[in-house]
Amino acid sequence: MNSEDSLIHPLLKLAFDAMEDLVYIMAVQNRQFVYCYVNRKAELFSGISKKDIGKNFFELYSERNQYEMAQYLHNKYSKVLVQAQSVRFDEGHLLPTGTLSGESIISPIFSENQIITHLVCITRSYEERHQYKEKMQYYAYHDELTQLLNRRFLYEFVTHPAYLFMFDIDNLKYVNDTLGMESGDALLIEVAGRLKRNFSSEYISIRLSGDEFILVSNRQQEHPEQMAQIIISLMNEPFTFNNRQIKINVSVGIAHFSEDINISIALRRADIALFHAKTSGRNKHHLFCEQTQYEQVVRFNYELALNSCLEKEELQLLYQPIYGNKQKQVVAVEALLRWKKDHKYMVSPADFIPVAEQTGLIIPIGEWVIRQACHDLPIVQAKYGQQTKIAINISRIQLSEPDFIDRINQILEEEQVDPQYIDLEITESVAMIDTVSECSSLLQLREQGYTISIDDFGTGYSSLSTLTRLPVDNIKIDRSFVAQMNPPVLKALLAMAEALELHVVAEGIEQEDQWRQLLELGCNDFQGYWISYPMPLDNLPDLPHFLSSVSTDC
């Protein structure tokens, strides 16, 4: 039999000894398995030394009175001999010696005559793998900098806390900017240390991210605001490190946990309460209350979410048909923007459109609406006729952009849509603003073939001089007039429109009686829930068939 030195090349032996895995090479002799080589790690794990080279399992383990271990290993290696291929053995089996086995792969080595002469076994130490797993599990649930528990732990293991106290450092940026990021990190570590030292096992201390921390209370408290004040007072005490004293302020948001909410909602409420506390003045605390309207928080969150709504494809257009009684068919559809935040929650346009206008996000969002409407136009016309138009609402912010006309023309050119099929709707309040540039833009758009309509007409108290001055084709009577159904007022509106050669659309038709009365007064185009609710493109109804069954004899 070859000795270990003659069997293993010196460089290969150095490589094996450098490995953290256990390496055993066994010679096959008369269906027994004889030790030829063990690397350094295997020697430490099994206690096998060079004096044991040349012994088989039974010879070695009989000396140790471990006959079961010898039989276990013999059976394990015999399986490879029978199958004549590599066999993987899972980790974690209890060995006869009382220790746990590691994950092993035993592979046969064949001679030129395809006879198995040796077996090589590579084993990953279970103990080291176990230690590695424990280490990885620790880092999975702990913050690397502060060693506090982290957000993942909060979501996976905190199920029914009583209260969440979320706080952040009001002036951490000042510390980072003046003393450096290292000082900022040192401060965060000190904050974590105070949490560990001052709160018992009834509380769980967590670092969420950056300078945000959460103290989780597992017991009900009659006055949670007192605990928030304790946190503020504790963090207001000066911190000393690097021979310097630093004083910080913190704001605290409190959320009460109940059975009908999950940890995500509780965390969200704590975040809203924290934001409310910060906007009310630094070094404050606030308890989330479902009855409180957190308008500034909601608007801020909408602003953040709207920044990515296009990228996340959260916007969609619904279409509401406008029915022309003279034509007995749909003459146009109005494109109505909807936002399904996170693809889950439908946000009212009344809530997010003002935010989009104030932040300027209405510019890219508005361009998306124009492009999507142009893209959908052929499907609309295939359903209702080639002369059907799409009405698109235009914000004053868009209209005041110097290159708005160039942008909309470029979109229509790319989508191969003629401007004559696009009806641009502006609100009456926008129409009343007497700016030369906006009036000039409307005139230019109208000259290029676009239809210009005033939406919600009657709510802004437009004067006759305003209507005569603006380049407008249509007015859409506001739904409030339709709901009140005051015939003299409606008749006067229709007469004024006729005198100014303006086309009229009645909005908000919700009942057949409203439709019939407006027909009697001389109105012919209608839009509202009685005609059709706003619908996705694929669900638009066949309205001519629906209305053909309703008598129009008045």
TrEMBL record:
SUPFAM superfamilies: EAL domain-like, Nucleotide cyclase, PYP-like sensor domain (PAS domain). Residues 160-290 form the GGDEF domain. CDD domains: EAL, GGDEF. PROSITE patterns: EAL, GGDEF. This is EAL domain-containing protein. Residues 299-548 form the EAL domain. Transmembrane segments: none annotated. NCBIfam families: GGDEF. It comes from Paenibacillus nicotianae.
